[in-house]
Sequence to fold (360 residues):
Amino acid sequence: MARLLCDALSYAGHDIDIASRLRSRVGYGNVLRQSQIAELASKLTARLLRQYQNGTRKRPDIWFTYHLYYKAPDWIGPIIANALDIPYVVAEASYAPKRAKGPWAQSHAAVEYALRRADAVFSLNRADMKCLVPLCGQDRLHYLPPFTHTENWHAADRGMLDPDLPVQLVTTAMMRPGDKLQSYELLAKALGKLNTRNIKNWHLTVIGDGPARAEVENAFARNAIADDQLDFAGLCDTDRTRILLARSDMFVWPAINEAYGMALLEAQAAALPVLVGDCGGVSGIVENGETGWLVPVGDIDAFANRLAECLGSRCNELRRTGHAASQKAERIHTLSAAAEMLGASLHRVVENYKIRSRDV
Fold:
C-alpha cells in the first residue's frame, strides 16, 4: 500500500521524496527498544533538518506519513513539519486508547501527538475511524477506499460454469503464525465440514508461503482434505497470481483480524466473487450480496454454510457476482480514483494551511 500511495501521489502530479526508511515498529512492548528507536529518530530528524535548511535536500511542501499506530509511531514527521512550518498528513492510522497505560504508553503518546498535529488523516479502514474522530475531527478525517492497479488483474471472460467440473476456489495469503494461520485453520475446518456433508464439487488453490507452511499443510490434512482437492502453488509473482486468479471461480478467505485485504481487492478486480469474514475494513471492499458474501468473522459454521450455498443452489450466481465485483473495482478502487481524491484533498490542505499561517 505504501508503494501504491506513492504511485497515486505521482499520478496526481506530486514529486515524491522518501525522506526516511526508519522502521519504528516494536512488536512486543519492549520499553527500552522504543526509547532506542525514538533516540535514533531524533538524530535522523536533526540530519534531515540540516539537509532541508542548507539546501542539500529539497524542502518539502507537505510531510506525508504512512501507517502509524501504537506499535509503530511517527517519531520524525511532526517535528519536521513544525520546524519547516508545513502541513503534516497521515494515511492509515489507528488509535487505541487502551494503550495509554502499559508497555506501549510512550509510543501511544507519540501517535496521539502526531494525530492531533495532522492537517489531514486518510483512513483506508472505516473501522479505524471511530477512535480517530475525537483526535482529528470530522473535517480532517477522510475515507480513502483501498485501491490498486486494477488493470493488472483483469481476466478474460470465463464463460459459463461447467456443472460437471469442480468449482475452482482460490485464496492467497502469507503463511505466518498468528492471524494468518488462524484464518487458514478456519478455512480448512470449513472445507472439512463440507466433505462430511458430501459436498465435494470444489478444488482449492492456495497461493502463498511462509514460516508457518508446515502448520498450514497440517491443518488441511487434519481436516481430511484430499490431495486431489488441494493445490499449494507456493509464493507467486504478480503474473503467476494473475493467471491463477483468472483460472478460478471464487475467492475464499476467513480474514481474521484483516485490516481490509488487498488480496480481496485484486480478486474482485479479476472478476472473482469473494467469500470472506466481516472484519475491519473488509466491508469497504466486499459489498455483501452484490460483489461477494460477508459472514461473521471467526464463525466456522457460517463460513461453511455460505460456501455450501455458493457451491449448490447459488452456483449460477458466481459469474454475475464476479462481474459486479469487477465493476465496483473499476468505479471505486482504481489508482486514478485514489489520485483524484488525494490530489484534491492535499491541494485544500496546502491552501488552508497558507490561510491559517497568514492569519497567525
